[in-house]
Amino acid sequence: MTPSAYWDKTRRLTLALLGLWFVVTFVAVFFARQLDRVNLFGWPLSFYMAAQGIMLVYLAIVVVYTIWMRRAERRLHLHSEQMHGD
What we know:
single chain, mainly alpha, two-stranded antiparallel ribbon
């Protein structure tokens, strides 16, 4: 992977994950009143989403980013070693 391809893919991943973060954070909160009609374990669904569900999505975002970046950096490092003959 070339450095420019690495940065292009990193930017796209970052934008996609930020888009997911935005949707989960603001869209779910915007529609929270409509979600109060549904109960989950005795609590309104909006409360459950705020207290548990959204945090799990944030954790998933961090895990996906970490795994992807480790793989991409490994590929970039291998490419640079092949280019420089190290």
